């Protein structure tokens, strides 16, 4: 597992998670506050972040986007 995954996850306080991402990994402060999902299974090394500006109704698709990422990252069962 990557060092980023060990230090932050979706269950962490957003302010604490943002501080770790900015200070230790060089993330932009605004992007670090807009993490939608980790995947697969909310624990993996893949992140979905909202980096859009001025897009309306984006929160309405937030849950579906995270679920889609999770489903897309899992191996297919034949």
Describe this structure in words.
This protein is α+β, with helices and mostly antiparallel strands. It is 42% helix and 12% strand. The chain has four helices and two strands. Strands 1-2 form a two-stranded antiparallel ribbon. Strand 1 (35-39) and strand 2 form a beta hairpin. The radius of gyration is 13 Å and the shape is globular. The mean pLDDT is 75.
Keywords:
78 residues, alpha+beta, 12% strand, globular
In DSSP terms (H or I, runs of 4 or more residues), the helix count works out at 4
Query: What can be said about the biggest beta sheet?
Result: 2 strands, antiparallel
How widely separated are the two ends?
26 Å
What pattern of helices and strands is seen along the backbone? HHHEEH
CATH class: Alpha Beta
Record the SSE blueprint.
Elements: H1 3-7, H2 14-25, H3 29-32, E1 35-39, E2 46-49, H4 62-73
Antiparallel strand pairs: 1-2
